[in-house]
Write a structure and sequence with these properties.
Blueprint lengths: L2 H21 L7 E3 L5 E3 L7 E7 L8 H12 L4 E7 L11 H12 L18 H10 L9 E4 L5 E5 L8 H12 L1
Parallel strand pairs: 3-4
Antiparallel strand pairs: 1-2, 3-5, 5-6
Length: 181
């Protein structure tokens, strides 16, 4: 093969290989801005099952905070991390600042599981973690309280619609299976 063809191959194909290499990573390659300030590298959760949930304070599903907190309390010692990601992407139902969101969650639901700053979770402006999750699973939040389950290896296992309550047998069964692996 001539140098000309090798050069053309490298120019055309290496970007595709590079993007595939990035997609082959794990959740541990990402960091979220913490609602408490600073970075929250997801690598700190290595070996744990993560339930990643985009949340909103003024939504019909906001009551799910109670169930998420219960899951966190019940299963954190077994290796579950519930991770809330406030988002204003759906119906402008999370209009507040990080301080207001944190206060709302603590006062109304006693939330003490980790949460990020308010992020975009859909579309072209979505946080890179959500773009990666969509590429990996085909799933993307359709509304508030959409849930991604990520195993202890940092790989997405499945996702659940907003309609799936934290107490649902289907969700709990998937969490328990991930915790055993």
């Amino acid at each position: 093969m001539s140098k000309k063809y090798i050069s053309v191959f490298l120019v055309l194909c290496l970007p595709a290989f590079a993007s595939n290499a990035q997609a082959a990573g794990s959740v541990y390659d990402y960091s979220l801005p913490s609602i408490d300030g600073g970075d929250m590298p997801l690598a700190q959760f290595k070996g744990k099952t993560i339930l990643l949930v985009n949340t909103a304070s003024y939504c019909g599903f906001t009551k799910q905070y109670d169930g998420l907190q219960s899951l966190w309390e019940e299963k954190r010692d077994l290796g579950l991390v519930v991770l809330g990601v406030p988002s204003n992407d759906f119906g402008d139902q999370e209009p507040g600042s990080e301080g207001e969101i944190k206060e709302f969650c603590e006062v109304n639901f006693n939330i003490d599981f980790p949460m990020s700053e308010k992020l975009v979770v859909k579309g072209a402006a979505a946080h890179p973690l959500y773009k990666w999750l969509k590429a990996e699973t085909g799933g993307s939040p359709k509304w508030n309280f959409y849930k991604f389950l990520i195993d202890g290896e940092g790989r997405p296992v499945t996702y659940f619609s907003s309609m799936t309550k934290p107490s649902s047998k289907k969700l709990r069964k998937a969490i328990d299976a991930s915790l055993k692996n």
